[in-house]
Amino acid sequence: MDLDLRLVRYFTVVAECGNFGRAATRLHLAQPSLSRQIQRLEAQLGVRLFDRSPQGSSLTDAGQAFLPGARILLQEAEQAAHTARAAVQPRTITVGCAEGLVITACVQELRRRHPDGQFRTRHLDWRDAHALAEGRVDALVAYRPLPLPTAGFRVTKLHEESRVLVTSASHHLANEKTVSLRALSDEELVACASTPVLWGTPKPVGDRPAPPPPAIDDSYEDKLELIATGHCVAIFPAGDRRAAVREDIALVPVIDIDPCELVLVTRADDPNPLVGSLEDVARTLLGTASRRENDELPVN
């Protein structure tokens, strides 16, 4: 006899709950659907497993006899699956992410779906432009423009993201609900070649002369200091919240600038099955989380 283990599991839950309604809730099923599944199992076995009444459900003699073996059957099936998975070399994937991105929820869901997999994350900066091509990561979550040629890679768009003005808390635009590019006409904004960030050219403030422009090896924190002291402004993706933790810096949504794209980049011929799972998870969770961050962006 070919028993459907899913039906056997449904039977054990109904037996434990003593009520089809409570069992349906626990199994996330509609009660009529659960009743039909139990009837299918009864038809396969050729016996009635439950006595049903307005007060609930109780096991028949046949149901009481079947319950211990049903539990053993489910336990042995789970053990067999675990043994089979343990015999295979654990699969691994290393996910790189650009500065300012948080992919914790994405990786946690991958671990839930693939408990025997090994997952690593690596936060990358501009010096790691070739990490994917060199095999140091198996996938890259980043904003366009990408820091690498895309030939031989699969680029999956996750979502579009708005942008914010990053300025000192004392800037005359810091308390605006939104800002347009016209209001920034006196700023000389320079686009980065490999990120969606625009940095303003430093200007003098009061009797303080303009500092030199940021050098290529200056850290992100060094550049934020120029903003906090009022010498320059920048435009960031709304999902990059690193500057939001500083009280001396304000974030203001920019209403008339093109959004930036968040993408997932993988090698086009990668046979790793976890790569496909990552794409599904990133579309569902990472994209949703980033859109929620946009919606909840505080207005300064």
What does this structure look like?
The chain has 300 residues and is an alpha+beta fold. It has helices at residues 5-17, 20-27, 31-45, 61-86, 104-113, 220-228, 273-295; strands at residues 50-53, 56-59, 92-98, 118-124, 139-143, 153-161, 163-168, 189-191, 198-200, 234-237, 249-254, 260-267. Helices cover 35% and strands 22% of the residues. A five-stranded mixed sheet has the order 4-3-5-12-6, with helices on one face. It has a five-stranded antiparallel sheet with strand order 8-9-10-7-11. Strands 1-2 form a two-stranded antiparallel sheet. The protein is elongated and about 95 Å long. The chain starts with a helix and ends in a 5-residue tail after the last helix.
Q: What would you say about this model in short?
A:
The chain has about 300 residues and is α+β, with helices and mostly antiparallel strands. It contains 7 helices and 12 strands. The protein starts with a helix and ends in a 5-residue tail after the last helix.
